[in-house]
Amino acid sequence: MTDLTITTLADRPELIERVYDIENTWPAFIDGDTVANALLHRVAADFPEFCVMATDQDGTPVARGLSIPFRFGVPQREELPDGGWDRVLTWAYNDKKAGLQVNTASALEIMIAPDRLGSGLSYRMLTAMREAVVKQGMETLVAPVRPNEKHLAPLSPMHEYIKLTRPDALPQDAWLRVHVRAGATIEKVAPASMVVAGSLAQWRTWTGLPFDKDGDVVVPGALVPVNCSVTHDRAVYVEPNVWVRHNLT
C-alpha cells in the first residue's frame, strides 16, 4: 500500500470537506443515535489535529480516522464511562465549550473504503491516529470499540464475547485484535455506548423487519437484540461497546 498517503486533517485541511466521501458501512439504524446526529459531523472541522485521512495516488479518500480530546481523571470522570461512545463525545464538546485543558484522546471511528478492506489499512490508520495523539502531547488514547464480528453472536453477552480468544491468545474478534496487536489493553465493557430509540415505522425503514411483536428482535448488524414495544409504538437499541486503552509512552 505504498500508493497511500496518510496525514492528519490539520496538515491537509482541504480534505475536511471530503471526510464523508468514504462510503459509510455502519448499519442504517445507527443514524438514529441522537448524539452522533448532533455532533459527529463536526468532529473533523473542530478537531482536525486528532483526525487522520488516507488518500490514494489520485487523491481519493480511502480511509478516515476520527478522534477527540477530552479531560479525564478529574472528579466524576475517574472511570471510563458506561455511556461509552455517546458520553465521551459529549464530554469532548463540553470541554471545548468550557475551554478546559484536555489530557486524553478517544477514537470514535476508523472507516475503511469497502474495496480496501482486508488490506491491513486499519492497522496503518490506527498507528497514524496514535501518532497524531502523541504529537498533541497526550500519553493515552482510549476507544469505545464496536467489535466488528459481535453481530454474528447477538445473543452472547458482551462480557462473555470479549473473553473469546484464538490459540495465540489474541481476541477472536478481528477489530479487538487490531487494537490489542497495536498494544492496547481491554479495560471494560461500555454497556450503553450508543442508544437508538425510534418508532416502529422508523425501525421498519431501517431494517426491513416487521417489528409487529413485543419483545427482543434480532436485527442484522446489531450487536445485541432490539427491544420492541408494539403497545408504545417504539423500539430501543442499547449497544454495548468495549473500552480499550493505548498507553503511548
- The coarse overall form would be globular
**Number of helical segments with 4 or more residues:** 7
Structural class: alpha+beta
What is the number of strand segments? 9
Order of helices and strands: EHHEEHEHEHHEHEEE
Helix content: 10-25%
CATH topology, which one? Aminopeptidase
Radius of gyration: 18 Å
Low-confidence runs: none
Q: Please give the alpha-carbon distance between the first and last residues.
A: 27 Å
CATH class assignment: Alpha Beta
Work out the strand percent. 25-35%
Mean pLDDT: 96
Which CATH architecture is right? 3-Layer(aba) Sandwich
In CATH, the homologous superfamily goes by the name Gcn5-related N-acetyltransferase (GNAT)
Largest sheet: 9 strands, mixed
| Total tally of structural domains | 1
Quick description:
The chain is α+β, with helices and mostly antiparallel strands and 249 residues long. It has helices at residues 34-39, 43-46, 84-98, 121-135, 158-161, 174-181, 200-207; strands spanning 5-8, 52-55, 61-70, 104-112, 140-145, 185-198, 215-217, 226-229, 234-247.
Polypeptide structure, described:
This protein has helices at 34-39, 43-46, 84-98, 121-135, 158-161, 174-181, 200-207; strands spanning 5-8, 52-55, 61-70, 104-112, 140-145, 185-198, 215-217, 226-229, 234-247. Strands 1, 2, 3, 4, 5, 6, 7, 8 and 9 form a nine-stranded mixed sheet that branches. It has a single domain (5-247), classed as 3-Layer(aba) Sandwich (Aminopeptidase), CATH 3.40.630. The two termini are 27 Å apart. The protein has seven helices and nine strands. The chain has 249 residues and is of the alpha+beta class.
